[in-house]
Amino acid sequence: MSRQRSKARGLAVQAVYQWQIAGQPVNDIFAQFMTEHSGKKVDTDYFRDLLHGVVAHLGRIDEGLGDYLDRDIERVDPVERAILRLAAYELLEHPEVPYRVVINEAVELAKVFGAEQGHRYVNGVLDKAARRLRPLEMAAQGS
Question: Which residue range forms the structural domain that includes residue 111?
Fold first, then answer.
């Protein structure tokens, strides 16, 4: 199941990136990705939730990240911006997913899709954001 969720995150980053760049309707992007990736083992429901959730909660997500960025969110590299938004959505809306899993998955996505040192930036921003978005969980983990 977690492998299928990892794949869903990978697709969601690409779909959010496409939405940010092209501004296409999110339902069209979802349908396109489902057609292109039919038959692959992906948690489709989670992919749908991530894509639609990022778009639906964009203001809250960007606000949650804003204090931890060194520049305006729109000036962050588009790939890293998509990864940060996706991870922030998971931190906010999916408490059943441990914050360490969210951060690790985001860092891995940044290594695959982002700029050379992008994963360090993503890790730093999300580590700080998780302290505010998941304080009880971090305290329980001793972080």
Answer: 2-141
